[in-house]
Amino acid sequence: MSVDDSYHVERVLARGRGGITELVTLGGTGPFVRKRIPVSRARRGVWATLPEIDCARLPHIEATYEMPDEFIVIYDYVPGETAEQLIESRGKLDPAEARRLIGEVCEAVSALHAHGIVHRDITPSNVVVAADGAHLIDFGIAMLGGEDAKGGDDQLGTWGFAAPEQYGFAKTDVRSDVYALGRLLGYLLTSVHPEDKEGYKRALASSDMPPNLYAAILRATEFEPSARYQSAADLARALREGPGERDSADASSSPAPRESAGNVWHASARARMIALVCAIAAIAVVAALLATQHLIPAPTDGGTASDAISGDASSGAASGGASGGASSHDTASRESTDSPSARQDTSGAQADTDVLSVGESHWSASNSLVYAEYSLTNNSDRTVTLPSATVTGYADNGSILFSREETLSILASGETTYQSTIFDSSTRPARVEFTPISPSADTMSSDTPPLLSTANVSARTSNSGVISVSGTVSLERDGSPPYYLGDDYGIHVTAILRDASGGIVGGGVNFLYSHPEEGSSMPFEVRIFERTDYATCEAYATVG
């Protein structure tokens, strides 16, 4: 008799192409879960790593062994009902309970990520709610960080919960699990499966949805991974620090801190490709936020007085708001004292080069994050490919808290564009410096890049406090895009918010994965997850 034959099958729990899951006992002990995984689908590295993880919210592995055609895993059985069964029997959860359960799942996910495992299938049916809280199960398509993230059609995850990159947009990583956690939170709060797109959107936008949880869901489920919370711990922290329910007028109208998005550096798959193709080894992180069409739009009803703010821009110029012109910009940075909300507008020390210069800049700090916006101008008579600037934060004692080179795709002669980015810093900086990087000769040319313009730019603030800047972007001249992108290029859109005096008070970015034909236009939207007072908005478009 083999070891496998020693187990008595009590019942079959699940059956599919990923194998058979059984409830078994052994000599009167148990029960245990036995997973019979086809050899071709066995992720031995994941199952070998799980016993090393000390987390009560993950399976306790009793044994693994090989059979001729199967890989067998034995682990402890956790009695309870799945989150899916819980919602089916009780309906949607109250915000406090949903937040608690997601926090417990975040514990499990954080432990996995610390050991290099990405789950990739966090769904209501894979979360068991037991007497001691939530447990995460089913590692059928989990992967170790060094493994190839792509698999067959049945390895893509569960529709409605799997991140977009699991369907071929990019490689999956820990942020793919963050996306699923955000979708799971939305499901627990609404009892509507995300597969029902319209019903799910309506439920999320309902008036009884706590604004901070709605904003957390939006942030966690951004299309572009770099725009999400960068870890499960960051998501859990954001849920802990925000108010639990919108149970009073004060809770719904008072300013709330910007969500804790962790290390949300704005870097796109395209920008990373640029760095590789151009072999710029010094660029460790290429920043250009590539958020694209959101799978969960902001509410279309309600709003605030900010709804009326609108304006136009052309040929990359700013779009002034309803309260007047921010259509021309200072060539020097603005500086002001701290406001009551602890926001700052300062440039730090800045240095011009013969070719590139940083003009306006702004930064603010909240919830261990530093948000920064700045302008970059090409002062030369040539086009610069991969124009860059370094953003550095300093502590009171002069030590460096963070420093990163930010790179765009292309900047035409005389053109000014804007960038918005986020840094993770547990210590609030005393100052932030924005320093242009002198381009090398091989990144300068006489090429005429595509000419983009924005128009009909307006801003709307939803009931949950999310600021949506929308408008149209037009291709005025097709020109010559960067050689590494060819004709298949996208558009990088940066939104800038200003106060009544014209100073920058916030911003955000989005990436459109296509571009209009010459002489035509296409819509865009940039979402800014901060509650800030602003008077005007504007938008800039560059080749992505």
What is this entry, summarized?
The chain has 544 residues and is of the alpha+beta class. The chain has helices at residues 44-49, 83-90, 95-114, 174-190, 197-204, 211-220, 232-241, 249-253, 269-277; strands at 8-16, 19-26, 29-38, 61-66, 70-76, 81-82, 117-118, 127-130, 133-136, 143-144, 310-311, 343-344, 356-366, 369-378, 383-385, 388-394, 400-407, 410-411, 416-424, 431-437, 444-445, 451-461, 467-477, 491-498, 504-512, 521-528, 536-543. The protein is built from 9 helices and 27 strands.
Would you write up a description of this structure?
There is one protein chain. This protein is of the alpha+beta class. The chain folds into three domains: 4-76, Phosphorylase Kinase, domain 1; 81-253, Transferase(Phosphotransferase) domain 1 (Transferase(Phosphotransferase), domain 1), CATH 1.10.510; 269-543, Immunoglobulin-like (Sandwich). It is 17% helix and 32% strand. The chain is built from nine helices and 27 strands. The strands form eight sheets. It has a five-stranded antiparallel β-sheet with strand order 1-2-3-5-4. α3 packs antiparallel against α4 (174-190) and α3 (95-114) runs antiparallel to α7. The longest helix has 20 residues, at 95-114. 51% of the residues are buried.
